[in-house]
Design brief:
With about 350 residues, the chain is mainly α. The protein has helices at about 5-55, 60-65, 70-80, 85-100, 115-150, 155-165, 170-185, 200-220, 225-240, 245-250, 255-285, 285-290, 300-305, 310-340, 340-345. The protein has 15 helices and no strands.
Length: about 350
C-alpha cells in the first residue's frame, strides 16, 4: 500500500511554500535596501577621512599661535596627535576609531569625541525634534485645507506665504529674528539654552529652556513646513478627482467627512516618505541655526570644529550626521512599502 501525505499536512506544506514565495520579494527588497545603506555608510566613512584632510589650515599651527611653542614642542604635539604618521597609518587609526565608536580625541576640547557627541546630541534632538513635530503638523493641516479648495483665498495665502518662507535662506531668517525679537524688542534670549541664572524649580527650568527655544524653533519651522504644505496640497488635489470620492459624494456623504475620512488618509502616503526623509536632513541642517543662536548642539559643535580645524571632531560629527540621514532614508523605504501595496506588488 503506497504511503500518502495526509490532506491536512499537504495543505500546510502548500501554504508554507506559497508564503515562502510571497516573502522572497520582501526579503530581496530588505536586503537590497540594507545593502545600499551599508555601502552609503562605507562611502561616508571614506569621505569623512580624505575630505577633511584637504581642508586648509593646520591644527597644530593654530594651537601654536594660541600658545607659543618651540619647534621641539610643535614636533612633540604633532606626534602626540598622530599627524606625523604616514597617511595610510592615519587612515588605519581612523577606521579603528570609527568601528569602535571612539572617533579619537578632540584637538581643542582635549576630550574624547564620542563623549562630546553624547553631551551635545540630545540638545540637537530636542531642538530639531520639536521643530519637526510643529512643521509636520502645521504643514499637513494647512496643505490638506488648501488642496481641498484650490484657488480659494485660504489656498492663495497659504501657498504664497509658504513659498516665500521656503525660499528664504535659513541663516538670513535666523539673523533677522535674532536682531528684531532678541536685540531690538528684547522679547527672547539672543543665544544659549538656559539663562545665566536659571530658576531653581523644575517647572521654571523647563520654561526657561522653552523660552530659549522659541526663536531657533521658529526659524527651522518657517523654512521647512512649506514642503509638507505643497506635497500634501498636491496629493489632496489628486485624490479629489478619484472615482471613489465621486461615488461617495453622490451617496450624500458630507464634504468634511470626504476630506478627513477618505481623501486625507490616502493623500498621506507621499507625505509620510517626505517626513522620514526630511527628519535626517533637519538634524544635519541644524548647523546654521545652532550657530546663529549659540545653541549647544551638534551643529554648533561642528561649526567650532571647522574653525580649528579639529579633524577628529569634524570626522565624528560628519559620520554621525550622515548615519542619521542614511538610517532615516532606510526607514522611509520600509514604511512606504508597508503603507503602499503598489510598492509591495512591484
Amino acid at each position: 500500500m503506497s504511503s500518502t501525505v495526509p490532506p491536512t499536512e499537504a495543505v500546510i506544506l502548500e501554504e508554507q511554500g506559497e508564503a515562502s514565495v510571497r516573502s522572497s520579494p520582501a526579503v530581496k527588497f530588505a536586503l537590497t535596501k540594507i545593502g545600499g545603506a551599508l555601502i552609503s555608510l562605507a562611502m561616508v566613512i571614506l569621505l569623512g577621512f580624505f575630505a577633511f584632510k584637504i581642508l586648509p589650515g593646520d591644527p597644530v599651527a593654530k594651537l601654536a599661535r594660541e600658545h607659543p611653542m618651540s619647534p621641539e614642542q610643535i614636533a612633540q604635539l604633532r606626534a602626540q596627535l598622530g599627524l606625523d604618521k604616514p597617511i595610510w597609518q592615519q587612515f588605519g587609526d581612523y577606521l579603528v576609531n570609527v568601528f569602535t565608536l571612539n572617533f579619537g580625541e578632540s584637538y581643542v576640547y582635549k576630550q574624547s569625541v564620542a563623549s562630546l557627541i553624547g553631551d551635545y546630541f540630545w540638545n540637537t534632538i530636542l531642538l530639531t525634534g520639536t521643530s519637526a513635530v510643529i512643521a509636520i503638523t502645521l504643514g499637513l493641516w494647512l496643505g490638506q485645507k488648501a488642496g481641498w479648495r484650490p484657488g480659494s483665498r485660504f489656498d492663495n495665502v497659504t501657498t504664497g506665504t509658504s513659498l516665500v518662507l521656503w525660499s528664504v535662506p535659513t541663516f538670513w531668517l535666523a539673523l533677522i529674528l535674532l536682531m528684531v525679537f532678541g536685540g531690538t524688542l528684547h522679547w527672547f534670549p539672543t543665544g544659549g539654552m538656559v539663562s545665566p541664572d536659571p530658576p531653581d524649580d523644575t517647572l521654571g527650568k523647563v520654561l526657561d529652556v522653552v523660552w530659549h527655544m522659541v526663536l531657533p524653533v521658529t526659524t527651522m519651522v518657517a523654512v521647512v513646513y512649506a514642503q509638507y504644505v505643497m506635497v500634501m496640497r498636491a496629493s489632496v488635489m489628486e485624490e479629489k478627482s478619484a472615482d471613489y470620492l465621486i461615488t461617495a459624494r453622490a451617496k450624500g456623504l458630507r464634504d468634511d467627512d470626504l476630506r478627513t475620512r477618505h481623501a486625507v488618509p490616502n493623500a498621506l502616503l507621499p507625505t509620510v516618505t517626505l517626513v522620514f526623509l526630511h527628519i535626517g536632513g533637519l538634524v544635519a541642517g541644524a548647523v546654521t541655526v545652532e550657530t546663529v543662536f549659540s545653541w549647544p548642539g551638534l551643529g554648533k559643535l561642528t561649526y567650532q570644529a571647522i574653525q580649528g580645524p579639529d579633524l577628529p571632531l569634524l570626522q565624528g560629527t560628519f559620520v554621525v550626521f550622515s548615519a542619521i540621514i542614511i538610517f532615516t532614508n532606510l526607514v522611509a523605504d520600509f514604511v512606504y512599502r508597508r503603507l503602499d501595496p503598489r510598492v509591495r506588488r512591484g
